[in-house]
């Protein structure tokens, strides 16, 4: 004999797996990724133009794009932290899950976009 489950007893998709994955992706991009790209791109720029990161126009623009990308990743981390608080309080689980699913791809797009702009500006 099988036991039928009441429809209301089914849990909607959990918020934590996509939120954890998105936060991990953004955290890695904001730290290790940004550091690695910053060192590589800025070393290339300063070696090419024999100047500091703020000493000449191409390297200053490159540095500005890298800083903008890092700042954007920081904002995404704050959004992720806010989503974690909302998930803990179980406030709007559908909206939190949808935002969590977008957080990781936004982090990747921001990283790729600002890195491409930084490389192109030097």
Binned, the helix content reads over 70%
Stretches where pLDDT falls below 50 for ≥5 residues?
6-10
Structural class designation: mainly alpha
How many structural domains are formed by the residues? Answer: 1
Average pLDDT, rounded to a whole number, is: 86
Report the major sheet: none
SSE pattern, N- to C-terminal: HHH
Keywords: Membrane, Transmembrane, Transmembrane helix
Helix and strand arrangement:
Blueprint: H1 16-49, H2 57-88, H3 93-121
Any overview of this molecule?
It is a single chain. With 122 residues, this protein is mainly alpha-helical. It has one domain (16-121). The protein has helices at 16-49, 57-88, 93-121. Helix 1 (16-49) packs antiparallel against helix 2 and helix 1 (16-49) packs parallel to helix 3. It is elongated, with a radius of gyration of 20 Å.
Concise overview:
Keywords: Membrane, Transmembrane, Transmembrane helix. This protein has helices at 16-49, 57-88, 93-121. With 122 residues, the protein is an all-alpha fold.
Salient structural properties:
122 residues; mainly alpha; 3 helices; transmembrane
